[in-house]
Design a protein that fits this description.
heterodimer; A: 346 residues; mainly alpha; ABC transporter involved in vitamin B12 uptake, BtuC; 15 helices; 70% helix; 0% strand; globular; B: 254 residues; alpha/beta; Rossmann fold; four-stranded antiparallel beta sheet; 9 helices
Chain lengths: 346, 254
């Protein structure tokens, strides 16, 4: 043996260095921008040129994508299961509408900020109580909170317009310059810009140490408690951010629809956004993008085929997706996304 | 005289009519190597839960370094330097070994409060995590999901997380439970090399491990402290033999 070298020492330290680099690479690289990640945005811009007559549907789809993204932050990452996310969509929609009709402030971007703030306050206050519970209790509590909010809106009919809603929501031109056309072209680009910024924000959050802690809570809340994690506060903060994003989605809905009714609080809304996210797969960031697009386009096409029974088709698709994934909590599409280099490794 | 690392005074806990901890008192000196033994159902894990704050005591006091912490939450006690492992693995199974340790360090250093910067750019946390894994010979598995590891190595990750918390007081709840004998040495190595400044209380059924590791043994029976003493005293104690060691010896013969 060569006495000048301690046997195997260099090889061992090389091995360790490689192992260290390998382990860090996953954490350091998972939030690098990849070409595949541009695909949904290219598709969204392409849709603008290919389907100029479908931009109303396109705008509504983008709004639901944002709504589903807000749900993904709490469901896909923190593991909070809710059936009442429409509460914050609704709060945002009403905040945006009342700002215009009652406070006569019609600049759209500040309207979004106002709606986000209103929904965030709602999310923070309700989250303080709701997030003390998990599982079935949380499902029932989120569901009933939203129903109570809807009925509160009905009680203060003079203020909210009740089920007749608030008509005549007209926003000022975007940046004081771009006016809105009948085909929804401006609205579409406006929504696309907002959704893009929202994705950037959520992406930063889920790949941050805070986002890592949310995943830790989803994976094993008992251990997070044992690590001294302020679990409740982490969940409240995530829930508040999620509520703000849902509120922005609601505000976009109000601004582009010119009419808001208490229907925004309907259970159907909470259920639909959950279905969209499950369709696309929760916990990989783009599940809402895929799921909401699929849902909205299918809904549109199936409704043309059969105005009465379109939901059957969506139901059947959801059953197929869930059964195909029954061994895993989160979507098959997530795996496809990972294969394309999107999102995180399991 | 300095206060003991951990002191328990007349600790009491009942679930309805069932008393699972009855008038328990003992003290662990700094750097102590204590074992907690007793038959199944004696309330050993309950006692760990009472010390960490996972369970609230019905009566009595828990003191850490002379400060009363009975009213503090689990998170607050953790931040004062109590860490534990679990009898049944409580791991982030879908995450990598590195991420498991990252969470322990991130929570201890409050890095996990940051929600804008990339987790992969927190080099202080990453370097500490990797050094830690290297010292436990786990660095080769750092990029593997925990659920893909053999059980013995998962148990090692269970301990690695607790050590990454840099505890003053470490509570090990049957660290070798369920580990095949071929992998037992992994756990033994780590436990025998623990920093002497850490005060350790280990719950264990494996008497060889207890006698090798502990310099004091507390015997818990039916929620009460039966006796406390050195390994020699405990193995010579007739009462302990009858309730505990006797059973085990018969097991071995059988």
């Amino acid at each position: 043996m060569d006495a000048s070298k301690p046997p195997g020492a260099a090889a061992v330290s090389d091995e360790i260095a490689v192992a260290r680099a390998h382990a860090v690479a996953f954490l350091a690289r998972r939030d690098r921008y990849r070409i595949a990640e541009a695909l949904p945005w290219i598709a969204a811009i392409a849709a603008f040129f290919i389907f100029p007559n479908q931009m109303i549907l396109g705008g509504q789809t983008l709004i639901m994508i944002l709504f589903a993204l807000s749900l993904d932050l709490i469901l896909g990452y923190a593991g909070i299961v809710t059936l009442g996310h429409a509460a914050y969509f609704g709060l945002g929609a009403y905040a945006a509408a009342l700002l215009i009709t009652d406070l006569h402030w019609s600049e759209p971007l500040s309207g979004l900020a106002f709606a986000a703030l209103a929904a965030a306050i709602g999310g923070f206050l309700s989250g303080l109580i709701l997030l003390r519970y998990r599982g079935l209790a949380l499902l029932v509590l989120t569901l009933s909170t939203t129903i109570m909010l809807q009925q509160l809106g009905n009680l203060f009919r003079d203020f909210t317009g009740g089920y007749d809603g608030i008509p005549g929501i007209n926003i000022a031109p975007l940046f004081g310059y771009f006016d809105y056309d009948l085909y929804g072209h401006t609205y579409y680009l406006y929504c696309l810009g907002v959704v893009f910024v929202a994705f950037y924000v959520v992406r930063r959050i889920v790949y941050s140490p805070f986002g890592q802690a949310l995943v830790g809570i989803r994976e094993n809340v008992a251990r997070m408690h044992a690590l001294g994690s302020p679990v409740h506060w982490r969940l409240v903060i995530a829930y508040t951010i999620s509520a703000a994003l849902a509120g922005i989605a609601g505000a976009l809905f109000a601004q582009t629809n010119t009419l808001v009714t208490l229907g925004v609080f309907d259970f159907d809304q909470s259920a639909a956004v959950l279905m969209m996210l499950i369709l696309g797969g929760a916990g990989w960031l783009y599940g809402g993008f895929v799921g909401a697009t699929l849902y909205m386009v299918l809904q549109n096409e199936l409704a043309k085929l059969s105005p009465e029974f379109w939901q059957f088709g969506i139901g059947a698709l959801l059953v197929a997706v869930v059964l195909a994934n029954r061994h895993r909590a989160f979507g098959r599409l997530a795996r496809l996304g990972r294969a394309l280099g999107l999102g995180a490794k399991p | 005289m300095t206060a003991p690392a951990l002191e328990i005074r007349r600790l009491q806990r009942s679930f309805g009519a069932l008393t699972v901890a009855n008038n328990i008192s003992f003290a662990l000196p700094h750097g102590g190597r204590y074992a907690l033994i007793g038959p199944n159902g004696a309330g050993k894990t309950t006692l760990v839960n009472l010390i960490t704050g996972r369970l609230r005591a019905s009566a009595g006091e828990v003191l850490l370094d002379g400060d009363e912490i009975t009213a503090l939450s689990q998170a607050a006690r953790t931040r004062r330097g109590i860490a534990r492992t679990f009898q049944v693995n409580q791991l982030f199974r879908g995450l990598t070994v590195l991420e498991n340790v990252y969470l322990a360090i991130g929570e201890r250093t409050n890095t996990c409060n940051r929600l804008w910067r990339s987790a992969g750019k927190e080099t202080a946390v990453l370097d500490e995590a990797l050094d830690h894994l290297e010292s436990l010979a786990l660095v080769g598995d750092a990029d593997k999901a925990v659920r893909e590891l053999p059980y013995g190595r998962q148990r090692l990750v269970e301990i690695a997380i607790a050590l990454a918390q840099r505890p003053k007081l470490l509570l090990l709840d049957e660290p070798a439970a369920g580990v095949p004998s071929s992998e037992n040495h992994l756990i033994l190595d780590v436990i025998s090399k623990l920093d002497p400044n850490i005060t350790v209380l280990i719950i264990e059924h494996d008497m060889d491990l207890v006698f090798r590791f502990a310099n004091r043994i507390i015997v818990l029976v039916a929620g009460e402290v039966l006796t406390e003493g050195s390994p020699e005293e405990i193995s010579a104690d007739e009462r302990v033999r009858s309730v505990y060691l006797g059973e085990r010896r018969e097991d071995r013969h059988g």
